[in-house]
Amino acid sequence: MSQLKTITSVCAVVLGTALNAQAHVNPQDAVERCVNHVDSVAERAQTVIADDTRACADRIRRLIRAGRVEAAHAVARKCVKDTRDVVRLATVEITTTCDKCVRYLDSVGAFELARRVINYCKDSVASFDELLARQREILADALRG
Fold first, then answer.
1. What totals of helices (H) and strands (E) does the chain contain, helices first?
2. pLDDT more than 90, % of the chain
3. How far, in Å, CA of 116 to CA of 13, rounded?
């Protein structure tokens, strides 16, 4: 969790610098930078979620084998909460990036590119729903033993 916050903070600074430099960048290059940043944030969030889910499932299985069912359910609840926090942070970062990118594109009259960025960002954020569903399945399987 703190790993994602640190990475997000660093990326925000880098993105801010990149977007400020876009005054002299053509719109297509700006889109490429924005999309690359969105992909980077989404991939990091997916990695953190996958690693956390794997660790939670392993811990849940150990607790179930030890007969500590309530503790296993508590681990599952905490894992889901932590994942939602990661998704929230990644969504904020992606939304902020996309908003800045779209404002820039609108300011230079690249409305079609702005619309494409908006759609790309929506799809990127929507992909987190699939991750959450997969996590629920993995944790449910672990709770069944």
1. 4, 0
2. 82
3. 24
CB-based contacts of 137, cutoff 8 Å, min separation 6 = none
Spatial separation of the C-alpha atoms in residues 105 and 120, rounded to whole Å: 14
Q: Is the pLDDT of residue 11 over 60?
A: no
Burial class (CB in 10 A: 0-12, 13-18, 19+), 27: buried
CA pair distance 139, 77, nearest whole angstrom: 9
pTM listed for this prediction: 0.80
Q: Is 67 left (phi over 0), alpha (psi -120 to 50) or beta?
A: left
pLDDT in tens, 18-50: 555 445 689 999 999 999 999 999 999 999 999
Query: Right CATH number for 2-144 from 1.10.3470, 3.30.1380, 1.10.132, 3.40.50?
Result: 1.10.132
The dihedral over CA atoms of 92, 97, 99, 104, expressed in degrees to the nearest 10, equals 170
Residue ranges of the domains in the chain?
Answer: 2-144
The distance between the two most distant Cα atoms of the chain, rounded to a whole number of Å, is 63
